[in-house]
Design a protein that fits this description.
15% of the residues lie in helices and 39% in strands. The protein contains three helices and eleven strands. About 25% of the residues have low confidence.
């Protein structure tokens, strides 16, 4: 009798276990593997596909390009600030011609940018390249005015002749010269009285 009861208990237990279902994962994401740490020797969790580096960390900041923005990122507020700034005082030395130095390039041309960097009062200049008139009258404003200058082999003279002094002070300007590749070759300034000129020499190798 006892043996019969034991047999019945065994069969009933087996029937109960056969009805229990093991739950299955519904996770469809990336698999996480256990890998051994180089420092501790213990397994650590690591994704199969690591996240890509942010493109902002890979990309370098873009340099300011006068070709794309002749105003050199000047805002209206900047222009107004410069417009109402005081111009340079007139000095006797401004009556004489000024040398802006020499630059060297292998390019076929240079890009010349000039602007009035002080009081915006109607300053005008004439531009002469190698003795030939290139621009009869250029009004200097708060933004850079681009001028392309083709070069000959050897020495090239670029002269800026002050046509006037505007309504205040001397003829004032900031000059920037870019190479054919867009590299900055020179950054200069001049202060001239009417009739005086500033000269930059560009040597083409």
């Amino acid at each position: 009798m006892n043996r019969l009861i034991l047999i019945l208990l065994i069969f009933s237990s087996a029937s109960l276990y056969s009805q229990i279902e093991i739950p299955r994962s519904t996770n469809t994401g990336r698999v996480i593997k256990a890998e051994e740490s180089n420092t501790t020797g213990f397994p650590i969790l690591k994704r199969d596909n690591t996240e890509k580096e942010s493109r902002f960390l890979k990309e370098k900041p873009k340099a300011i390009d006068l070709r794309e923005n002749p105003n050199n990122l000047l805002t209206e507020a900047d222009a107004m600030k410069e417009k109402w700034a005081k111009d340079a005082e007139v000095k006797e030395e401004y009556r004489f011609d000024q040398s802006l130095g020499n630059v060297v390039t292998q390019g076929r041309f240079v890009e010349v940018y000039c602007r009035d960097h002080q009081f915006i009062d109607g300053d005008k200049v004439q531009i002469i390249v190698n003795g030939e008139l290139v621009e009869a009258s250029v009004m200097l404003t708060a933004g850079f005015k681009p001028i392309l200058v083709n070069l000959q082999e050897g020495f090239n003279s670029i002269q800026f002749v002050a046509l006037n002094q505007g309504s205040s002070g001397p003829n004032t300007a900031e000059l920037r010269v870019l190479s054919e590749k867009g590299e900055m070759l020179a950054k200069k300034e001049w202060n001239l009285l009417t009739g005086a000129k500033a000269e930059l020499i560009v040597v083409k190798n």
